[in-house]
Write a structure and sequence with these properties.
By secondary structure, the protein is α/β, with parallel strands linked by helices. It contains nine helices and 13 strands. Helix 4 packs parallel to helix 6 and helix 7 (209-219) crosses helix 8. It is globular and about 50 Å long.
Length: 364
């Protein structure tokens, strides 16, 4: 089989909500969208809108915050009754059986294992996206609480590779080295504690091909490796991913569409039997909400409709979002039943299952 041959196709119905449990992060990635919200630490007390997208004192960015209409800062969630009630309400409304913890960096949350326990106690499967800052320390407790999967974002195997995608605050090679070690320790701690692991690598362009090939070879021995297109870099990112696939001798096996979101990923087998996934964002739109959006064209809509996100504002209000480029569309959990979003999203999921299964002859 070669990379030009067609893999098998599978369609799965979207079953996930993303929950932003913390805004704090010790990294400063130049492509970070921060789940659509401003960097809280850089904007405390700010009253003038819009929030800036560029780096503040932390060096962090939120690439859409200047244009997406966001009017709140994200607060840290705690595993109390309000948290349980908000998650239960949103999960039931959207027929979701899985919660994915995001940030910021979830492993910096001092009660992250308690959050996992609260969610699994509601019968929900729990995943997490992490850069691994404190994964070694928290992974045993998270595993015991029922964490099913962690997607570890890894940016390099050397300090120079990491610094290539970080702000100037990572000019210290020692700091970069410590972050690389922490990510590797998180991956090993997750594997040893029975938590499934995927290594996430954003591939901005051709200048990063060598870095990504090194990562595939380093981590593919004991974890799935997942390459993500950079939503800012589009075609250049896609070309770079193709070059990496060629360099590692990848063969396509299975293409999976998540019906009801823009998420599409293909599983490849690389040299040595390594599992390599390529995740792409498709131009998927909600039929009503997205129709009149100013970003609804081939260049401005960068993520498409990716799914439901849950936030907590600094004022203590839980908010539901449908787009990180249109945070002005967020509604409170209390207002969700009368917003029309639930009915639109559920009908859209069903329609996408039918469309994708028909178009691709896929097994749903």
């Amino acid at each position: 089989m070669s990379v030009t041959q067609r893999p098998a196709v599978r369609v799965v119905r979207d079953n996930t909500i993303r929950v932003k449990v913390i805004d704090a992060c010790g990294m400063a990635c130049t492509f970070c969208h921060n789940e659509g919200t401003p960097v809280t630490a850089d904007n405390k007390g700010r009253t003038l809108l819009p929030f800036p997208s560029g780096p503040g004192r932390t060096g962090r960015v939120s690439i859409y915050s200047e244009t997406n209409g966001v009017d709140f800062l994200s607060a840290k969630m705690v595993p109390d009754m309000s948290f349980r009630r908000a998650v239960r309400t949103v999960a039931r409304a959207f027929d979701a059986g899985e919660v994915h913890l995001t940030g910021g960096e979830p492993t910096l949350h001092t009660e992250v294992s308690s959050l996992v326990s609260a969610l699994t106690g509601m019968g929900l499967s729990v995943g997490m996206t992490s850069n691994g800052e404190r994964g070694r320390q928290v992974m045993p407790a998270c595993s015991a609480a029922g964490l099913n999967r962690v997607n570890v974002s890894v940016f390099g195997t050397t300090a120079e590779e990491l610094r290539a995608v970080q702000s100037e605050r990572f000019n210290s090679a020692g700091l970069a080295d410590s972050k690389i070690r922490a990510a590797e320790q998180t991956i090993r701690a997750a594997v040893s504690n029975g938590v499934k692991v995927s290594v996430n690598i954003v591939v901005p362009g051709m200048a990063h091909v060598d870095r990504v090939v090194n990562l595939v070879e380093a981590y593919g021995q004991f974890a799935d490796v997942r390459m993500l297109t950079s939503i800012q870099d589009g075609p250049e990112s896609a070309a770079a991913i193709s070059e990496v696939l060629a360099r590692v001798g990848a063969e396509p096996v299975l293409r999976t569409f998540t019906a009801g979101t823009s998420d599409e990923r293909t599983l490849y087998r690389a040299l040595g039997g390594r599992a390599v996934y390529v995740k792409r964002l498709l131009p998927v739109r909600l039929p009503d909400t997205c129709t009149s959006c100013r970003f609804n064209n081939d260049t401005d809509c960068e993520e498409g409709y990716y799914g439901i996100r849950l936030y907590l504002t600094e004022q203590g209000e839980y908010m539901v979002g449908v787009c990180i480029q249109r945070m002005d569309l967020c509604v409170t959990v209390a207002d969700l039943p009368k917003s029309g979003i639930v009915e639109e999203v559920l009908a859209f999921k069903d329609a996408e299952v039918r469309r994708l299964t028909s178009e691709h002859g896929a097994a749903a």
